[in-house]
Amino acid sequence: QVRLVESGGGLVQAGGSLSLSCVASGSIFSINRMAWYRQARGKQRELVADITGDGRTNYADSAKGRFTISRDNAKKTVYLQMNILKPEDTAVYYCKMDGRDIATTYFASWGQGTQVTVSS
Question: For residue 104, what pLDDT is reported?
Answer without folding.
Answer: 85
